[in-house]
Design brief:
about 625 residues, Penicillin-binding protein 2a (Domain 2), 26 strands, 7-stranded mixed beta sheet, Beta-lactamase, alpha+beta
Length: about 625
């Protein structure tokens, strides 16, 4: 009986042990098979450490793929303090190589942390310094790849591109505005260590960084380089307070070039003041436009049908009185009797006062707002200004008169360019933009693409046609003569605006500007150039801005492959101009007949005979008075 009880207990214990064993086996199977991956990840998270690898920022290119913002691969120093066996030696060696104090380096080496990035002493190291550190083969000392932003053209387009900080984050311009696109995802070298930081004998893992997206701009590098060159020339010649230029495609709103002075080199942005870094003058600066604003007043008048530029006339005595105030023309004694086409051509202030009075303040200010003044254009850049326009209830007769010729209102350069583009493109106000597309860095697949955006219609196509012709007359026969280019129909308008400070006009302190379009019969580019307070020059924009604008226009013509046009308005030559004549057709003529036809030119002969077989330049080409015409005889 007793033995039976013992056997029964043994069996119960045995069954219990077997059950426990089965549970243990099942648990081990569950851990090793079913829950393995989860537990592995948890354990690895306890052991794993990461050395970060920075991704490259996306490139910024011009419209033709030329790189404006790139990356340089650099190296930075990272420490794993618990892996450093001889901390005193490491501190001494690194302080010598990096040329910092022992105490400064000691603060990094002895720091109680799993990973210590040596900042800023160990960031963006030169290859020479990185090689010296690498040759030491010190435990716990690592060199990791970092990317440094690099601007290959230095100051070019600096305010628009912006700059990045030491951690590769955008701080200004497009670098800041599109930072989320340009910034990639960091990679890492994953290694394993115990709780004390000692490296475990376990294979490292490389997590590849994902580079940022590329951004393509509407900018044409050739046009931009022309702008930069001429702005530098302006600084050298005139020592202005500021200078700026914008080139825009009037049919789309694309910015083809934009720059200002003072500028800066984003590779070394720390060398400049906050004022220089932050002010993108073409979109931020606000001032009285002066006579370039007359384009808006004239367009409004033509659109309203209150004036026929060729038939209606105005007599300019040199001044006009408005509510007791005398508003003068720039020309002493006035221009006398003139058509309204000549009023624009001569930039006659009293003539524009008359147009303002004929329009009335409601209509004039409605058109001013219709053309976009008083509001941001919406260009895809930070820091755009709005300008200042009179409230209608504060507009009296004097304010109406001065506004009509561009005084008393404050506008931004980009507003003026967009408005004048609307005047010449058929009456379509487009939103300016500078980012053309955003694409994947690896595949070049376009993620986002920008197209022209119509804001509203401003004037009729017929009014636009009339204004294009009128602006061409200003260049051929008015104040824009120095911008005239043989064989190309250039339209434009000069402006000389007296600057205001604390509510008072400054003496001999002007903003001189020139607004131009090429070609006027089929506009492909609008150029605006402004020089703030130029020194050592005549106080007339017709002598200061137009020769510089002409050089930029020639580069625009080349960059856009604009072909020569016919039907241009003949230029009125001045005493210091080079006179040109059309070369007559001498092919098939006798030598004596050719001599009579080429009376304004010098002749060079080649070949022998009495008949002209070929000639250079070709018939119909404009050639300087006294220039050489070569004739092949046979």
């Amino acid at each position: 009986m007793f033995n039976r009880k013992i056997d029964k207990r043994i069996k119960i214990v045995l069954v219990f042990i077997i059950m426990i064993f089965i549970v243990i086996v099942l648990k081990v199977l569950f851990i090793e098979v079913i829950d393995y991956n989860k537990l592995k990840k948890l354990s690895e998270s306890l052991w794993s450490r990461e050395l970060p690898i920075e991704a490259d920022r996306g490139k910024i290119t011009d419209r033709n793929g030329k790189v404006l913002a790139d990356n340089l691969t650099t190296t930075s120093l990272v420490l794993i303090p618990n892996q450093i066996k001889n901390k005193e030696l490491v501190t001494k060696k690194l302080s010598e190589i990096l040329n910092v104090s022992y105490e400064q380096m000691k603060s990094h080496v002895y720091k109680e942390t799993s990973i210590e990035r040596v900042h800023p002493e160990g960031r963006r190291l030169s290859f020479e310094i990185a090689d010296k550190i690498n040759e030491l083969k010190l435990d716990g000392v690592y060199l990791v790849k970092e990317s440094k932003r690099y601007y290959p053209y230095n100051n070019l387009l600096s305010h628009t591109l912006g700059y990045v900080g030491i951690d590769n984050q955008g701080l200004s311009g497009l670098e800041l505005q599109y930072d989320k696109y340009l910034t990639g995802s960091k990679g890492a070298i994953k290694y394993y260590s115990d709780a004390k930081g000692n490296k475990l004998n376990k294979q490292q893992k490389y997590i590849e960084p994902v580079n940022g997206m590329n951004i393509s701009l509407t900018i044409d590098l050739d046009i931009q380089m022309s702008i930069e060159r001429e702005l530098d020339n302006i600084v050298d010649m005139f020592s202005p307070d500021n200078a700026l230029a914008i080139v825009m495609d009037p049919k789309t709103g694309e910015i083809l070039g934009m720059g200002s002075r003072p500028d800066y080199d984003p590779n070394n942005y720390k060398d400049y003041t906050t004022e220089v870094l932050s002010r993108n003058l073409p979109i931020w600066s606000s001032y009285e436009p002066g006579s370039t604003f007359k384009i808006i007043t004239m367009s409004s008048s033509v659109e309203e049908g209150i004036v026929d530029l060729d038939k209606d006339t105005f007599y300019d005595s040199g001044s006009v009185k408005v509510d007791g105030s005398t508003l003068r023309c720039w020309k002493a004694g006035g221009h006398g009797h003139q058509t309204f086409l000549e009023v624009l051509q001569n930039s006659c202030n009293p003539g524009f006062v008359k147009l303002g009075q004929m329009l009335g303040k409601e209509k004039l200010f409605n058109y001013i707002k219709l053309f976009g003044f008083g509001n941001k254009t919406g260009i895809d850049l930070n820091g755009e200004g709005t300008g200042i326009i009179f409230d209608l209830d504060r507009v009296g007769n004097v304010e109406l008169a001065t506004t009509a010729f561009g005084q008393g209102v404050s506008v931004t350069p980009i507003q003026q360019v967009a408005a004048v583009a609307s005047v010449v493109n058929g009456g379509y106000l487009y939103q300016p933009y500078i980012v053309k597309s955003i694409s994947d860095n690896g595949t070049n697949t376009i993620i986002e693409e920008r197209n022209k955006k119509l804001v509203r219609k401003t004037i009729s196509s017929n009014t636009s046609k009339i204004m294009r012709r009128a602006l061409e007359y200003v260049v051929a026969k008015g104040g824009g003569k120095s911008a005239y280019i043989e064989g190309y129909r250039i339209g434009g308008k000069t402006g000389t605006a007296q600057k205001v400070e604390n509510g008072k006009y400054l003496v001999n302190n002007y903003i001189m500007s020139f607004m131009s379009v090429v070609p006027s019969n089929d506009p492909q580019a609008v150029l605006y150039l402004a020089i703030d307070n130029p020194k050592k020059t005549a106080l007339l924009s017709s002598y200061t801005t137009t020769p510089i604008a002409r050089r930029i226009l020639l580069d625009v013509i080349n960059a856009l492959n604009i072909e020569k046009q016919t039907g241009e308005v003949e230029k009125d030559y001045e005493w210091n101009d080079t006179v040109t004549y059309k070369v007559p057709n001498c092919i098939g003529k006798s030598v004596e007949e050719a001599k009579k036809l080429l009376v304004n030119f010098k002749i060079e002969y080649s070949g022998s005979g009495e008949k002209v077989l070929e000639q250079s330049p070709s018939p119909g080409t404009k050639h300087d008075d006294g220039g050489v015409v070569k004739l092949l005889l046979g």
